[in-house]
Specification:
Strand content: 15-25%
Order of helices and strands: HEEHE
Number of strands: 3
Distance between the termini: 9 Å
Helix content: 25-40%
Largest sheet: 3 strands, antiparallel
Strand order of the largest sheet: 2-1-3
Structural class: alpha+beta
Radius of gyration: 13 Å
Number of helices: 2
Length: 73
C-alpha cells in the first residue's frame, strides 16, 4: 500500500505522542492506495500491549465498508 507523506507523518506523530506506550490505529485503503489513517485510543495504556474499544472499531469499520473502502492495516 502507498501512503502519502501527510499520512506517514500523522502515523509517526501519533506514535511519538503515545510513546512509550503502544499506539493504535487503522489505515483505510482503496485498491493499493491508503485513503485515510485513523487513530484509536490504546485502552491498555501500556508499552507492552494494546487494547482498542471494540464498539469504536466496529463503527469505524462500518463507515469504511459503507464507502466501499477496506481496512488495509
Amino acid at each position: 500500500m502507498r501512503l502519502t507523506r501527510e499520512q506517514h507523518d500523522a502515523i509517526v506523530a501519533h506514535a511519538q505522542r503515545d510513546a512509550p506506550n503502544e499506539c493504535c490505529g487503522v489505515i483505510v485503503v482503496s485498491g493499493a492506495e491508503a485513503v485515510a489513517v485513523h487513530e484509536l485510543e490504546n485502552l491498555a495504556a501500556s508499552p507492552l500491549r494494546f487494547e482498542v474499544d471494540g464498539l469504536a472499531l466496529h463503527r469505524l469499520l462500518g463507515e469504511v465498508e459503507d464507502r466501499g473502502d477496506e481496512l488495509g492495516a
